[in-house]
């Protein structure tokens, strides 16, 4: 009864409530006051709304992000690995096909029981080896024929280049003569043949001689 009377007196003495707020709280004990005396409160005064209005929001909560809270990431943020996020329904651009290693071609292997095709005959002639003959316008010439192919040389011609040398060492002329190839020359083999190479006798007077320095061949 006394407390209610004191609260009513405080409200009445303090005048009408400002902006719809009324002071709430116990009145500190003190000496008796006369009617009309204004006595300030001894404890903190809390102001409360008289109606059902919205409670005041805490600072930094309503309409914003609480202080210290991490900011939300937008939809355009990068996905892991640095690839931008693609909105739903967006068509992906066509990707180029992966590069293929260059194809290497190999000759087909021969079927079982068959042999690979052979290579044609290929003759290599060694340097001619010379020896004296009975006549001064002739000499014996030995030539080696090496067939590096797999097929035999079945026929051909050997051409000799014979130089006519004077008594003072002057090379007066070169005469070519031909003789048959020592066929057949099997593939992968070497065959040597000695020829008697001669020129016309009148070309080699007394004191002159012949030298066969080169041999060439054709074959089939």
Brief account:
Helices cover 5% and strands 30% of the residues. It is mainly beta and 220 residues long.
Word description of this protein:
It is built from 1 helix and 9 strands, in the order αβββββββββ. It is mainly beta and 220 residues long. Among the domains are: 2-49, no CATH class; 123-219, Immunoglobulin-like, CATH 2.60.40. Strands 3, 4, 5 and 8 form a 4-stranded antiparallel beta sheet that branches. A hairpin with a 5-residue loop joins β6 and β7 (171-180). The longest helix has 12 residues, at 2-13. Mean pLDDT is 74; it is low at 1-18, 58-65 and 69-83.
Low-confidence stretches: 1-18, 58-65, 69-83
The overall average pLDDT, rounded, is: 74
Query: How does the major sheet shape up?
Result: 4 strands, antiparallel
Distance between the termini: 146 Å
Helix content range: under 10%
Count, helices:
1
The CATH class of the domain at 123-219 is: Mainly Beta
Run of helices and strands: HEEEEEEEEE
Subunit organisation of the chains: single chain
What is the number of E strands?
9
How much of the sequence lies in strands comes to 25-35%
In the CATH hierarchy, the third-tier topology of the domain at 123-219 is known as Immunoglobulin-like
Structural class, by secondary structure, is mainly beta
Q: What best-fitting shape do the alpha-carbon axes yield?
A: rod-shaped
* Rg, Å, rounded: 64 Å
**What is the CATH-assigned architecture of the domain at 123-219?**
Sandwich
């Amino acid at each position: 009864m006394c407390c209610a009377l004191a609260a009513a007196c405080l409200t009445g003495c303090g005048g009408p409530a400002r902006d719809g707020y009324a002071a709430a709280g116990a009145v500190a004990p003190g000496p008796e006051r006369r009617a009309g005396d204004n006595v300030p409160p001894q404890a903190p005064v809390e102001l409360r709304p008289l109606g059902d209005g919205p409670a005041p929001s805490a600072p930094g909560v309503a309409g914003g992000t609480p202080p210290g809270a991490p900011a939300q990431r937008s939809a355009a943020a990068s996905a892991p690995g640095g690839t931008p996020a693609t909105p739903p329904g967006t068509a992906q651009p066509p990707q180029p096909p992966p590069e293929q290693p260059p194809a290497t071609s190999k000759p087909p292997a021969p079927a079982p029981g068959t042999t690979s095709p052979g290579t044609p005959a290929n003759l290599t002639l060694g340097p001619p080896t010379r020896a004296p003959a009975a006549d001064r316008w002739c000499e014996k010439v030995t030539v080696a024929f090496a067939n590096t192919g797999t097929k035999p040389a079945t026929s051909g011609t050997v051409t000799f280049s014979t130089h006519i040398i004077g008594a003072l060492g002057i090379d007066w002329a070169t005469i070519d003569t031909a003789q048959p190839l020592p066929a057949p020359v099997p593939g992968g083999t070497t065959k040597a043949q000695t020829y008697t190479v001669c020129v016309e006798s009148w070309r080699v007077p007394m004191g002159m001689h012949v030298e066969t320095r080169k041999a060439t061949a054709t074959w089939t």
